[in-house]
């Protein structure tokens, strides 16, 4: 009853907000029409003021949209609606406002006036001077413009105003999203599945990119054959499309996973993959762009240009990685060696600035800021986080949470808006149909073969239902959109942009909305407490599934991966953590004796005092929702006893005895390592191998 | 010993950061020189990339500066250095980088090339088309340019790049600063001194503005007489200078007050005045701008234009006020009637967006966003704050704290930078000397006469030492700078900008640094616990000072002000708080019976359940520093027993019995009002008077 009243109130509020948006937009249109008459007389000052007012109205429109989205999200959460996620919602509101902008506001209020033009023989320079009877005015280049569009430059002004500079997405909106992703990676699950995540993200994205690129090239040829193509569309354009559309963004899926507390490993696989393949897609697309000019006019395959592109890919990726990790390390050192934790405000500000400077530093050096920020986030979460004061850890987490939330919803509502307000859409039914087919096939070629290969080497198999869920979770989102809108100058790019937009809409609404039924249909366990999930390591669960014989066959591979993991873990625990944080064993005990003075200088006094374990950030992981309700009563029965295993694991210590043998979770590794000194000697012997390992 | 080591480490770190900044800047210069050769060939794409890289380097420079500032602030706080505040520090670092940019980077790397120009007969339009052999390019107007500057458009590119769009200060950096100020006003002290604050802020700023304006007009006439003036400088320009330089910003002083826990009333007077006079100065300066065109060519006094300006002032100010308060009220209603407090993230995001939309809404309607944001902050703190969940109250406070901190330090380091990198400085010794004299005299004419008048009506006098401290605390800061840089097109404005910059430097360094000695010299009590300070109301303290006879003489005035305060308080407590928050008495008991259905609809269910008092946000006021050290041992002796009174008040209940008679603090009013019903009936009888009161 009360809930109904709330809902009614909220609905009324939403209506009022929509009306407000409408009134604002109309007012803006009216104002500009009215004041436009005076502009010519009062000159540029008045015009600047008007432009500023218009900007305010535009931003206000977006903010109203976001406010509306937030209120509706609340309503949905309140009523436990899961068929539509907040991002989908933001898109719908964006669409509505886009329709209003496009069709609702009378275009007659603008006069059709062609701006003055002048001719020059030289190519366009960034700055142009205009001499009006002795007075000089400075103009900046905005971009090339089609001849046929010249006459509606002014007419389209309103719609164009709403169009943001695409670089805003890359430089302002994406960094907090990606940083937050890196910062909130559930590290234990992430590191446990690191090999698989990297395989999916690198190899899988590459497969998907080249498959989609080639298939689309076929589609483009078909279009040319049936006369549907009106302008150039090169092979590299197709590959570029493959790169941008291969960046998955299962934000909707993951939000539901988080809410339902779905399986931690699956979550880690999906989240890790999507975060990493965003990075891969950015670098891949810029490598393909770099390939383009090399081939002169042919746009055909050229081996040297190809290897150059591969080189660029590796260079940019590793450069960005190193830059991100380095800033993270510097922040860790600064927060360790200053006593900044007495002043949480300073600490938070420093943390924020250092994270941002990673982005800028990478961009200034010609690397990719977004990728650097991702690795900075991971490094910060792993080291710096432990040096921050209790209050700052909360502050930074919440700060980035809010920024992430706002940025994400902004991008999605902008996407909705862009469908109607973007000026240069090229809808091509054949291309769109081809692209939809291509992304599904590309995703399948990524997930199934790679899962098969990975399962050969994995102790805990990626089961069929996990694979289907990963296939299903191949949504496209913010990154694909941002990459597509970055350059919409040519016909090919415009067609790609339109298609990308439609793919994002479709996948977010249909796949995003279908996540909950799909989870139920695939019998994936939900209601897993992430803290308790730690105890039953992957294989103890496997055993319960009756996969025992298979496990024995994999013992060698298992040993190998465990050895790799242990190497990294030991190095990190013995050297990196003591250097960069206040925890871990004192360096004086782990470093050889001739490093004595250095070791004692680097070791924190606290390391001697409390040899206690690092407090693990995973435990602090903030869950947005407190409603841990199990909607699927059938899961406990159908999921092969998964729920039973969970209960047992939480209750009885028997499993940990079993799990001890396998030695793969970090807790156990830590225990073992603290128990025996031999292992440390072993790792000391192989220290030369570490520099490679360090970057994994 | 350890502190020394820390200091040494931090100093080394600072050196390294400075070197990094230097390297970055040189690298940027080198890069651009190197790549500039290729620009012509590869066209605009390459140029855009270069420009993006340059932007990144610039931002990175600022971020490095801020990082450096934070580290040095830490060092200063750590070592309890108080002669230089963080803002002064930020300016110094800015100055250093400015010097490097100006003199350190070889200008030879740029070629002196005049950009292409073309001629038109019409006036400049915002958009210009360029026809280069059939291809059309769109250009946007950047601004007018001096003929003599044409040849170094490219040469100055580096320095100009560092120059931010002045609107950035108004639209991005000032709003969080001002909002935070409003949001963190210590409300009890603020409301207690509201009358005085408004008098200083409105009347005082107007006096100061007109005095400075007229004095400067004399100075300008003198300059013309001695031939020091090379261009036009009107009377309205002088008034404009008076307006921008009248905005005080005692950020340094207040930070020290906060740290030393100086007297709460003095803090409220200074803080309230500076916050409000920022708002007054903005509106005043735009009113003066509006006056300018009305007088055609004469620029002399014109009664109708003057009254028009006064009308504009009142219109803009009240419009901004209403807009800010309205958004605050809407947010309060939304947070009250939705159960958003279950989802702190949504709540914080909503709060942030609503506060921001105040700014945009006001700008879109032609009012002043900064002023609206101030009143929005005050309203939010008074109502919305109480509806937020425990976590959100913390989150929002911290979020705005960080934003405020970053924005403020950014502005101050930019000021340092601007001294050397701004291109159009006009240093005029006579004008500067005149301005310095004018601001001191203007401040004196503001504080002393108004204090005398206010003391006639005040129960607790503003004593001489408070007046001297207020005089001393007349620093100029962010607002004066932002107003001065907003328009630097004419010669007069350039001279004003240069002078403003120097005044800011001088006042922040000298007066800011002198705050601690000054407090000691003026015997102003420090170490006041703001929570305990509540109990001894102003007059119980007065009595202790032996001002008894004087107090009797003021009993009528005292009654009046108490009556006004009580009216507002009762209205707020009985109607506004129950409508806008979950607390206060249920509306069903305060509203007349015929409003029954409305009252029960508006009253929160919680209001019936717990008639407990509003939790007062002042108690949650976050102190940045935990070091409550009393540096002034002599204060307890010299401050007329102030410390003794504090101790007594905290210990014994005798004072509250005494204080009950006066009935001016909100606690006591609340108590009384809950005790007796008659008063409520009284307030019901005078309800028609309220609409005026509501806006105070």
TrEMBL record, chains A, B:
<keyword id="KW-0050">Antiport</keyword>
<feature type="transmembrane region" description="Helical">
    <location>
        <begin position="239"/>
        <end position="257"/>
    </location>
</feature>
<dbReference type="GO" id="GO:0015386">
    <property type="term" value="F:potassium:proton antiporter activity"/>
</dbReference>
<feature type="region of interest" description="Disordered">
    <location>
        <begin position="643"/>
        <end position="679"/>
    </location>
</feature>
<keyword id="KW-0406">Ion transport</keyword>
<keyword id="KW-0812">Transmembrane</keyword>
<feature type="transmembrane region" description="Helical">
    <location>
        <begin position="491"/>
        <end position="512"/>
    </location>
</feature>
<keyword id="KW-0915">Sodium</keyword>
<feature type="transmembrane region" description="Helical">
    <location>
        <begin position="57"/>
        <end position="76"/>
    </location>
</feature>
<feature type="domain" description="Cation/H+ exchanger transmembrane">
    <location>
        <begin position="69"/>
        <end position="521"/>
    </location>
</feature>
<keyword id="KW-0732">Signal</keyword>
<comment type="similarity">
    <text>Belongs to the monovalent cation:proton antiporter 1 (CPA1) transporter (TC 2.A.36) family.</text>
</comment>
<dbReference type="Pfam" id="PF00999">
    <property type="entry name" value="Na_H_Exchanger"/>
</dbReference>
<feature type="transmembrane region" description="Helical">
    <location>
        <begin position="310"/>
        <end position="334"/>
    </location>
</feature>
<dbReference type="InterPro" id="IPR002090">
    <property type="entry name" value="NHE-6/7/9"/>
</dbReference>
<feature type="transmembrane region" description="Helical">
    <location>
        <begin position="354"/>
        <end position="378"/>
    </location>
</feature>
<keyword id="KW-1003">Cell membrane</keyword>
<feature type="signal peptide">
    <location>
        <begin position="1"/>
        <end position="33"/>
    </location>
</feature>
<feature type="transmembrane region" description="Helical">
    <location>
        <begin position="168"/>
        <end position="185"/>
    </location>
</feature>
<feature type="region of interest" description="Disordered">
    <location>
        <begin position="535"/>
        <end position="557"/>
    </location>
</feature>
<feature type="transmembrane region" description="Helical">
    <location>
        <begin position="426"/>
        <end position="445"/>
    </location>
</feature>
<dbReference type="GO" id="GO:0051453">
    <property type="term" value="P:regulation of intracellular pH"/>
</dbReference>
<keyword id="KW-0739">Sodium transport</keyword>
<keyword id="KW-0813">Transport</keyword>
<dbReference type="GO" id="GO:0005886">
    <property type="term" value="C:plasma membrane"/>
</dbReference>
<dbReference type="GO" id="GO:0015385">
    <property type="term" value="F:sodium:proton antiporter activity"/>
</dbReference>
<dbReference type="InterPro" id="IPR018422">
    <property type="entry name" value="Cation/H_exchanger_CPA1"/>
</dbReference>
<dbReference type="InterPro" id="IPR004709">
    <property type="entry name" value="NaH_exchanger"/>
</dbReference>
<feature type="transmembrane region" description="Helical">
    <location>
        <begin position="88"/>
        <end position="105"/>
    </location>
</feature>
<keyword id="KW-0472">Membrane</keyword>
<dbReference type="GO" id="GO:0098719">
    <property type="term" value="P:sodium ion import across plasma membrane"/>
</dbReference>
<keyword id="KW-1133">Transmembrane helix</keyword>
<keyword id="KW-0967">Endosome</keyword>
<dbReference type="GO" id="GO:0055038">
    <property type="term" value="C:recycling endosome membrane"/>
</dbReference>
<protein>
    <recommendedName>
        <fullName>Sodium/hydrogen exchanger</fullName>
    </recommendedName>
</protein>
<feature type="compositionally biased region" description="Basic and acidic residues">
    <location>
        <begin position="669"/>
        <end position="679"/>
    </location>
</feature>
<feature type="transmembrane region" description="Helical">
    <location>
        <begin position="399"/>
        <end position="420"/>
    </location>
</feature>
<dbReference type="InterPro" id="IPR006153">
    <property type="entry name" value="Cation/H_exchanger_TM"/>
</dbReference>
<feature type="transmembrane region" description="Helical">
    <location>
        <begin position="197"/>
        <end position="219"/>
    </location>
</feature>
């Amino acid at each position: 009853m009360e809930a109904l009243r709330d809902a009614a109130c909220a609905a009324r509020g939403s209506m009022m907000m929509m009306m407000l948006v409408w009134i604002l937009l109309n007012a803006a249109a009216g104002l500009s029409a009215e004041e436009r008459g005076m502009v010519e007389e009062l000159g540029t000052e008045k015009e600047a003021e008007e432009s500023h007012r218009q900007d305010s109205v535009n931003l206000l429109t977006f903010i109203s949209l976001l406010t509306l989205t937030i209120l509706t999200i609340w309503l949905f959460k309140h009523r436990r609606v899961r068929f539509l996620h907040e991002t989908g919602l933001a898109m719908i509101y964006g669409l509505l406002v886009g329709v209003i902008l496009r069709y609702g506001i009378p275009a007659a209020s603008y006069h059709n006036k062609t701006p003055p033009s002048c001719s020059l023989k030289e190519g366009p320079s960034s700055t142009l001077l205009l001499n009006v009877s002795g007075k000089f005015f400075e103009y900046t280049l905005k971009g090339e413009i089609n001849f046929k569009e010249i006459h509606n430059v002014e007419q389209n002004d309103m719609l164009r105003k709403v169009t943001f500079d695409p670089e805003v997405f890359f430089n302002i909106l994406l960094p907090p999203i990606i940083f937050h992703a890196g910062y909130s990676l559930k590290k234990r699950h992430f590191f446990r599945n690191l090999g698989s995540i990297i395989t999916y993200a690198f190899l899988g994205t590459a497969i998907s990119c080249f498959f989609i690129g080639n298939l689309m090239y076929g589609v483009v040829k078909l279009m040319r054959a049936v006369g549907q193509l009106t302008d150039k569309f090169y092979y590299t354009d197709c590959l570029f499309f493959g790169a941008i559309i291969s960046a998955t963004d299962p934000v909707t899926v993951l939000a539901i996973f988080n809410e339902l507390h779905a399986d931690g490993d699956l979550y880690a696989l999906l989240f890790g993959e999507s975060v990493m393949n965003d990075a891969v897609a950015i670098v891949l697309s810029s490598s393909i762009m770099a390939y383009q000019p090399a081939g002169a006019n042919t746009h055909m395959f050229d081996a040297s240009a190809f290897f150059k592109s591969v080189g660029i890919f590796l260079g940019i990726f590793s450069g960005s990685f190193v830059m991100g990790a380095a800033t993270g390390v510097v922040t860790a050192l600064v927060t360790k060696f200053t006593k900044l934790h007495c002043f949480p405000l300073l600490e938070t500000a420093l943390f924020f600035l250092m994270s941002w400077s990673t982005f800028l530093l990478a961009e200034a050096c010609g690397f990719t800021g977004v990728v650097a920020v991702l690795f900075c986030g991971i490094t910060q979460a792993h080291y710096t986080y432990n040096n921050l004061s209790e209050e700052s850890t909360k502050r930074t987490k919440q700060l980035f949470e809010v920024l992430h939330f706002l940025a994400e919803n902004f991008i999605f509502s902008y996407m909705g808006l862009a469908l109607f307000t973007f000026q240069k859409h090229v809808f091509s039914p054949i291309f769109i149909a081809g692209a939809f087919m291509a992304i599904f096939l590309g995703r399948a070629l990524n997930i199934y073969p790679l899962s098969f290969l990975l399962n050969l080497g994995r102790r805990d198999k990626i089961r069929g239902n996990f694979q289907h869920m990963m296939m299903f979770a191949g949504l496209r989102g913010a990154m694909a959109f941002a990459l597509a809108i970055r350059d919409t100058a040519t016909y090919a790019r415009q067609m790609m942009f339109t298609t990308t937009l439609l793919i994002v809409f479709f996948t977010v609404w249909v796949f995003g909305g279908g996540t909950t039924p799909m989870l139920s249909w695939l019998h994936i366990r939900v209601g897993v407490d992430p803290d308790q999930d730690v105890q039953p390591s992957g294989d103890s669960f496997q055993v319960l599934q009756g996969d025992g014989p298979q496990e024995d066959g994999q013992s060698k591979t298992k040993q190998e991966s465990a050895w790799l993991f242990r190497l990294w873990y030991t190095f990190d625990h013995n050297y990196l953590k003591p250097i960069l944080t206040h925890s871990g064993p004192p360096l004086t005990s782990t470093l050889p004796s001739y490093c004595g003075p250095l070791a004692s200088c680097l070791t924190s006094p606290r390391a001697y005092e409390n040899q206690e374990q690092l407090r693990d950030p995973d435990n602090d992981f903030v869950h947005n929702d407190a409603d841990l309700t199990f909607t699927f009563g059938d899961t406990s029965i159908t999921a092969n006893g998964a729920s039973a295993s969970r209960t047992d694991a939480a209750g009885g210590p028997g499993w940990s005895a079993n799990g001890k043998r396998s030695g793969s979770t970090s807790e156990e590794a830590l225990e073992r390592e603290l128990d025996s000194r031999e292992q440390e000697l072993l790792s000391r012997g192989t220290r030369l191998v570490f520099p490679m390992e360090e970057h994994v």
